[in-house]
Amino acid sequence: MAGDGCCPLLSVTPTRCLVDEKFEVLVQGLCPGSQVTLHALTQTEDGDYWDAFGHYVSDATGSVKVSEHCSVGGSYEGIEPMGLLWSMKPVPGSRTGLRFRKKDVSIPIEVHISVYKGHMTEGFKEQTPLASVVAERWYIAPGIQRISITEKGIKGTLFLPPGPGPFPAVFDLWGGAGGLVEYRSALLASRGYVCLTLKYVGLVKDGKEHNVGNDYFEAAYTVLQEHPKVCPDKIAVMGLSFGVSVTLGMTVYSPVIQPACLVCVSGSHVMPVNGCLADVFAAIKKNVRNTRYDEEQRIIWRDLLLPIPDDPSKKVEVGRIKCPVMLIVGEDDQNWPATESAEDMKQMMEKAGNSHLLTILSYPKTGHLIEPPYSPHCRASNFVMAESKSKVVALWGGETVPHCLAQEDSWQKTLAFLKKHLYSDTSMCKL
């Protein structure tokens, strides 16, 4: 057995990398046939602990290689090279309704990986591991500049890759949870793009929260487009949830926002013709009676924009889109009618003759919160309502294994899509 005359060595390679990169976890020096548990633990900036663990049996050489060997139990099973990350959950006894989100991209996620004797399912804190190592996972690469943007009345954060440029850019729009969410933009900047992430929900004016108009997004896009390190005709807009409504509406109706391509994650085109964000909120309020709850009283919002209207005046005229569009859809999205919207958009674009511009990535058993790869799956979490400030538990959907596979696949295809449409035929832009 492990520990009986054996001196195991645990290594993680690399010990420092970006969050969308894989690492190799290797245990050597065990006795052949040893039962061991590999355990991963991290603490969020809110002070909450998350962990994951896998049960392994060492091979004839006394080794366990996570990328090749099968976990026979734990928080994940099978050959899962990154299972120690994506299967993480809040440790027993944690606060309810937690969601794993990085707030400060200037510091890494520190993952403490340990190997224990035997197949353990609890009590890791009380036991002494055979060996431990700390791995750093970063959203931001060395040399990336982070700049707060307040000009023209906007509130955002700009990330600049190192070097003179000019570079292609991404205008990054998050969803209805509000706030200034930076981690996806920081990661995209680490892959060679100037990125501007924008706060647009929950902004305060004259002491009251207000819905921004289209001019707010146009001003922000202009700031990005006019930056000296940006190729002005090589800008993508990337939206999530509510951000998809803005992305599609602005692309079709704004004379200012004319992107080279769009990436739309878990969203819809249901919005009055030439409308704005306030119109989307109004449509949702009108259908509040369609709100549902599951057996655990978690709120389901996906029906608030259903059925998809037949009236063309209530939908963005996606047949007018002139740039490539990628839709990323979770088929178990319980928050937004992404599947129905994607199918309707496809029909509208086929009718208009521009469906050749459309790519749909549709993932079974995948929920609303499609994050960068190896992020823990969040099926439900606390959500603070924008106006009342009351807290509910929102059901996002998805099953852990297929959802996390979808996150990895969609991220790689997103990077390939951006590279194809932002770097091709552009001698001035630099990768």
UniProtKB/TrEMBL annotation:
Any GO BP annotation: fatty acid metabolic process
Stretches of the chain forming a coiled coil according to its record: none
Domain Acyl-CoA thioester hydrolase/bile acid-CoA amino acid N-acetyltransferase: residue ranges: 20-151
Active site: 241, 333, 368
InterPro entries per the UniProt record, alphabetical: AB_hydrolase_fold (IPR029058), Acyl-CoA_thioEstase_long-chain (IPR016662), BAAT_C (IPR014940), Thio_Ohase/aa_AcTrfase (IPR006862), Thio_Ohase/BAAT_N (IPR042490)
Domain of life, per lineage: Eukaryota
Domain BAAT/Acyl-CoA thioester hydrolase C-terminal: 215-423
Any one GO molecular function term: fatty acyl-CoA hydrolase activity
PANTHER family xref list: ACYL-COA THIOESTERASE 17-RELATED (PTHR10824:SF36), ACYL-COENZYME A THIOESTERASE-RELATED (PTHR10824)
Family, as annotated: Belongs to the C/M/P thioester hydrolase family.
Stated name of the protein: Acyl-CoA thioesterase 19
Gene: acot19
